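Input sequence (70 aa), recorded before submission:
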Amino acid sequence: MRYMEINIFGVYVAPFAPMMLAAWLIARPLQRMRDRFGITRFVSHPALFNIAVYIIILSLIVIGFGWRGQ
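Predicted structure, token format:
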């Protein structure tokens, strides 16, 4: 598994930063969907649930890029 810096308009960015952005872009609509259907009513701490879903999505993205690099 090899992660290399990404060149964005002449600025080298760690590969983890775009992965975090992608995870946020995926998690945000999921959060709105959970709020719309009232799923967060069944959770004891909605903010903790939201961050846990974000971490799960981020982990899947990192693992996916790791598998692709082999």
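Checked by second reader. DSSP finds two helices and two strands in the chain.
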